[in-house]
Amino acid sequence: MIKIQNVYKSFAGKPVLKGVSLDIHERDTMVIIGRSGSGKSVLLKHLIGLLKPDEGQIIVDGIDINKAKYKDLREIRKEFGVLFQGGALFDSMTSFDNVAFPLRTFGTKSEAEIRDRVHECLELVNLPDVGPKRPSELSGGMQKRVALARAIALEPRYILYDEPTSGLDPETSNTIDELIRRLDQQLPVTSVVITHDMHSVLTIADRIAFIHEGEIRWTGTVEDLHHADDEVLLSFVKANEYQIGNPSPTANFS
Amino acid sequence: MAAALTQRLLAPARELGRYSLLLFHAFTSITEFSTYRKNLVNQMVVIGIDSLPIVMLAAAFSGAVTTVQTAYQLVSPLIPKSIIGSIVAPSMILELGVVVTGFILAGRVGARIAAELGTMRVSEQIDALESMGLNSVSYLVLPRVLAGMIMLPMLYVMACFIGIGGGVVAAHLGGYLTIGEFMNGAREFFEPFSAYFGIIKSVTFGFIITSISCYKGYYTIGGAEGVGKSTTQAAVLSCVYILFADLLLATLLL
Which of A93, A238, B92, B220 is deepest in the core (most CB within 10 A)? Predict the structure, then answer.
C-alpha cells in the first residue's frame, strides 16, 4: 500500500503540491487526473523518491521512503515498474536489451531464462518481433509498449504510468488502455496512472483522484464520477470530452 | 533585489557543492564494481582507443612544428644543433604532450560525455535507471571519471613518443640536424621527474575533463537547448580548468 500524507513541494518558490494526501490500496488501479501543470507528474516522481517533498511523507509498505537510506530506497524501488511519459528507453540498446536490462542487472536468471522472460514480456505487450530493433526505429506507441514490457520484466508489485497515452493517436491509445487493463487483471499489481485522457480513465480506473492547483480536490470511483457535483471537476471532464471530440464515454456528464 | 543579488553571488558556491556531492556519491560507490564494470571497459575504449588517432596526429605535428621553430630561432653557430632535441623532447614531456592531449579530449570526450548524459537526463533515461533501483551515479558517472583518469596518462605517454618522433622526422627531413644529434640532445637533458610530473598532470586533466563533463551532463535541464548548453560548457570549462591546473601543478611541483 502507498500512503501519501500531506505532501508539499515547491520549485523556485512556486508551490506545485500543497498538502496532497492520498491512499493507494493493494491491487487497485488509481488514476490521477488533472490539467497540465497541476502537479500530477511531480506527485508520481515523489512515489519512488525521484523527488523529495518539502514537507509530508510517502509511505510504501509501511516505510517512509524519504527517511530511508539510499541503499534501502533502491531496494524499495525494485518493487516498482515505471512507464515514463516518453518511454525513456535506452537509445543505445535494442528493444530486447532494454527489456533484458533490469533482469541482467538485478535478476539471478541465466541468459536463456532472461531470453524467455523478455519474449514473454514483449508478447504481453503484443510486440513479439521488435526485439532486434532500436527505440529510434519504433513508433511512439511501440516505444511505450516496449517501455511497459521493461517495466514489468522484474514482476513489480507496483506499476506507475506517467501519461501513458499522451501524444498517441486514439487507436494506439485504446491499445495501451486495453494493455493496462489486461495487465491489471493478469498480474498481481497495484497501478497508479497519471493522465488527463478521460477515455483512459473510464477504461482502466478502479479509483480516481482529481488534482487541481496542487491539491487533491476529489476522489472516488468511476461510478462516483457520474454523480459528482464538483464544478471544477465537471469542467475538466467536459473540456476533455470536447477536446477528444468523442462524447460517448462521458455523455452522462452535463 | 538584495535576495536576487545574494542568490547570484551564492550560485558558484552552490555549483561547487553540487559538483563535490556528485563526485562524493560516485567515489563512495566504487565498491559496487559489478554496477560499472562493463561501462568502465566501454568508456576506456571510447576515451582511450577511439581518441588515439587524433591525439597521435596532433602530437606528431606539435613535435614537428616545435622542432622547425626551434631550429629557426637557433641561428648562432656557437650553439650545438643537438640543443634542438634537448628543447623539443622536454617540451613534449613536460607540457605539450599532456596539454595537447588534454585539450583534444576536452573537446572530443568532454562534449560527448555531456551530450550523452544530458540527453539521458532530459529524456528521463536517468530517472528510469534510478526507478529500477540502480545507482545512476555509479553506473554512469564513476566509470567515465575512472576511464578518463586511466586512459589520459596512456594517451599522454603515446603522445610524447609520437611527438618526439614527429620532431625527429621534421629535423631529418628539414635538414636541421641528424637523428643521432636530436636523440643525443634529448637524452642529455632528460629528467625522469619530468615524466612523473607529466603523468601526474595527465591523471589530473583526465579527472577534470570527465568530472566536469559528467557534472554538466548529469544536471542538464531544459531539453535540446539545455543539452547544447551543457555540451558547450563542458568543453569550455574543461579547457579553462586544465589551464588553471597546469599552472597550479607547475607552481607546486616544479
Answer: B92
Which residues of chain B does A74 touch, with a Cβ-Cβ cutoff of 8 Å?
133-135
Query: Does residue B123 belong to the interface with chain A, where contact is any CB pair within 8 Å?
Result: yes
CA distance B182 to B169: 10
Cell numbers at residue B37, please?
564494470
| Nearest CA-CA distance, residue B122 and chain A, Å | 9
Q: Which domain holds residue A177?
A: 27-55+79-244
CB-CB contact of B195 with B93 (8 Å):
yes
B68 CB-side CA count, 13 A: 11
Q: Total structural domains in chain B?
A: 1
Query: Which range of residues forms the domain containing residue B108?
Result: 35-253
Count of CB atoms situated within 10 Å of the CB of A86: 19
Residues of A in contact with B123 (CB under 8 A): 86, 88, 91
Cα of B45 to nearest chain A Cα, Å: 16
Q: Rounded to an integer, what distance in angstroms lies between the CA atom of residue A58 and that of residue A46?
A: 7
Domain count, chain A: 1
Cα within 13 Å of Cα(B50), Cβ side: 13
What mean pLDDT is reported for chain B? Answer: 93
Q: Rounded to whole angstroms, how far apart are CA atoms B24 and B26?
A: 5
What is the pTM for the complete model shown?
A: 0.88
Each residue's pLDDT tens digit, B19-69: 999 999 999 999 988 889 999 999 999 999 999 999 999 999 999 999 999
